[in-house]
Sequence to fold (442 residues):
Amino acid sequence: MKLWGGRFNKEEDLLMKTFDNSLPLGKRYYEEDIIGSIAHAQMLGEAGILTTQESRKIVSGLESILKELQSGELVIDEEAFEDIHSFTELTLTQRIGELGKKLHTARSRNDQVAVDTKLYCRKRGLHFIELLEQLIAALQEKGAANPVLMPGYTHLQRAQVVTFQYHLGAYVEMFKRDRARVENALAIMDENPLGAGALAGTTHPIDREITTDYLHFRTPSANFMDAVSDRDYIIELLSACSLIAVHLSRLSEELILWCSQEFKFITIDDAYATGSSMMPQKKNPDAAELVRGHAGLAIGSLVSMLTIMKGLPLTYNKDMQLDKEAFISAFDRTDQTLTIMQRMLVTLKVHPEKMQQAMKDGFLNATDLADYLVKKGVAFRDAHDIVGCIVLYCEEKQCSIEELSLETFQQYSEHIDEDIFEYLEYESSLNQGNKREIRGGS
Ligand code: ARG
Fold:
């Protein structure tokens, strides 16, 4: 059951057969292979390379295979065929007879696999855009529903007051850029490789505009050799997936910290946690940990693909068949992790009182006090120093800045007046300067 053999005297070694078999992963894009083949057959008819009747018969044969695969009536036998292309053509010939052998006129598996992979990447990429939009909506809604103040951190040390909504808003921006990266990758890849043949086109009078329209590409690709060698678009999507993974992983890390006993800012819903086999009290944030772990594997796929491609001479080389291992797993991971994160966000509970408490314990109004002094005419560097001394004093006394008396404040600076107490309220800094934007969420 193969597409070649005439020039061989001997069967393949059995191990070689499995070694070369790309069907277990290639079957994931059977729809694209059949739709690409339908477009090709249609074109062969319209261009007069096959008769209209022949073209119709091939198209309807392919359509029936597609339908039966979609319904589950037909199941692909992974061992019987070398790849998805062999499956499609040989199954067609089994069904419609000798005419099936004409399908591959003016085509190579090299332009066929290129078009299949592009169509598949486009389908998965469009779905990532939808998932990113759902995740962005979940972040925005969670933030809007919880208008609470919290500490913002640098070096994981409490730094300045922000709002929970604003913190989540930072992720909204990251995922918006990720969406733009996926859209950009889809825009750049929008060229039809079909018609490039093995590497040097074909002597048949094909019409690439027909398959381009049929498959909704912007234009036929310009150079045949590039068309069959190009896997840039996979790498670009994998790069977008890697950044999505990195952003999801950072968010996961924060959720893991926030749900710990040490923070207790949030509770993750039971549906996204697991327990311990030994310690009855444990509730572990496994979903977030897995999302964080998957990022390592997603980045691995990008590196694999870059490394596979970097030394290949033009044009097609069999190394490229291994691309599926990199992109299919990375795409599945992206789908799963975006979905799990969205669900985890929708269901998690926020504990405003814990956030407020952490805010009060961290001298988060120290920078505001320095700004106050500057507004009273003190140079910022001097103000910074004065407040540093006040913080040291508070640490010794184990109190917060706003608990000091006016007399104590005035021992540090004569510029401090009664109005300082209102100024030091945690909310009040967010009513001043461009900090007002923090209140606005994202
Ligand atoms: N089996 C390959 C794959 O699944 C496609 C065949 C490409 N061409 C070739 N000459 N072997 O990616």
About this structure: The first strand starts at residue 149 and ends at 154. The beta strands are 149-154, 157-163, 191-192, 219-220, 266-267, 349-350.
